[in-house]
Hints:
Structural class: alpha/beta
Keywords: Glycosidase, Hydrolase, Plasmid, Secreted, Signal
Distance between the termini: 56 Å
Shape: globular
CATH architecture: Alpha-Beta Barrel
Radius of gyration: 20 Å
Order of helices and strands: EHEEEEHEEHEHHEHEHEHHEHEHH
Protein name: mannan endo-1,4-beta-mannosidase
GO molecular function: mannan endo-1,4-beta-mannosidase activity
Catalytic activity: Random hydrolysis of (1->4)-beta-D-mannosidic linkages in mannans, galactomannans and glucomannans
Subcellular location: Secreted
Largest sheet: 6 strands, parallel
Helix content: 25-40%
Amino acid sequence: MVRRRTILCSGGAVASGLTLPGFAAPASDEASNRPDGFLATDRTSFSVDGESQYLAGTNNFWLADVWTTRDEVDTMLDRATDLGLNTVRTWAFCAGRNGHCFQPSEGEYDESAFEHLDYVIEAAADRGLRLILPLANNWGAYGGMEQYVEWSETAEKHDDFYTDLETRQLYRDFVETVVTRTNSISGVPYAEDTTIAMWELGNEPRAQTKGVDVLGDWIEEMSGFIKRLDPNHLVSTGMEGFYDGDGDDWLRDGSQGTAYVDHHRIDTVDACSFHLYPDHWGVNPEYGTEWIEDHVRDGHERVGKPVYLGEFGIQVDRNASDARQQIIRRNSIYDTWYDRLDELDADGGVVWQLTLKKRAPYDDGFYVFPGDDRTIRRIERFANRMDAESGRPLHADWKRRRARRN
């Protein structure tokens, strides 16, 4: 079939040099604090121009949502930089979703959504932050892989996403559109922008009905495809880190169709990704500490690549009578996990997630709001430790620059 590839324009405002409502003018070179050098790897470590780099960050999935205002982007990124974080992980995907996102319908792309992502990238660059950008979603939110399956004339079920010719082409088309884009604000091609730390093939990909080999073939093909389009940036899987036969429980028996070690051994995958959610997985936080230890050790020793904890969280019910005790428990667990990441020389930890007070109605129990001071202190302390161990710390430079602004 002939693949449509249509850009839904935003009225020509950018092309004509006008500024869209709420859309910032291009940042000047003088104002930019864009990170120097691409994030790279040096055996089992991240590096920038040969100097070690550790990632301390937060997730914020709604940051690149077209409904998010530029003021919200700036406020959120200011929070991250004020805490000394150097990394933010946010979605670079959206399919379907009532017609207003990156790909509102099959083969059609919404320019205004991409312009918003341009703004997020440039706002991060202005603060010296790096971005981890997943390119698809295993889950239904923001369309997900099931939206590709729905668009296909030959796919039927979720895991057909990995094998169906049409869904694979739809994914490649979208990935190429993102990775080869030139930022409409800065004029910097994404593939040449040091603000982007790495691409993730997806957010938490699983192939429960197709199995480990099928997902491995897909990872190998798609990571190689991105590397050919963009040899400058790192690529990882974005997976949760489930094992293939390293134990009897569902996290380790291969039932999720992922193989933490073998899938990250693929040559065109640069770093090992894993996530940690004891509350969702039905395990205790002590198991979470073991999960960290196993993944850092296996990533460094068996795979031989950097390892980062791309998402983690402990759930809190703020409406419960014991909410305060739940928060105290969460803080204690975060202390333990952050300490183990540091002690094991893990290459990054990215919490789920710092957010704004106005997002309270959407709290899934994992949000960290302004005012959660004791939790925030844990995040800041880890950031400062990673900053001190990195060859190119960013925190002090940002504080000096922000002081000059104010």
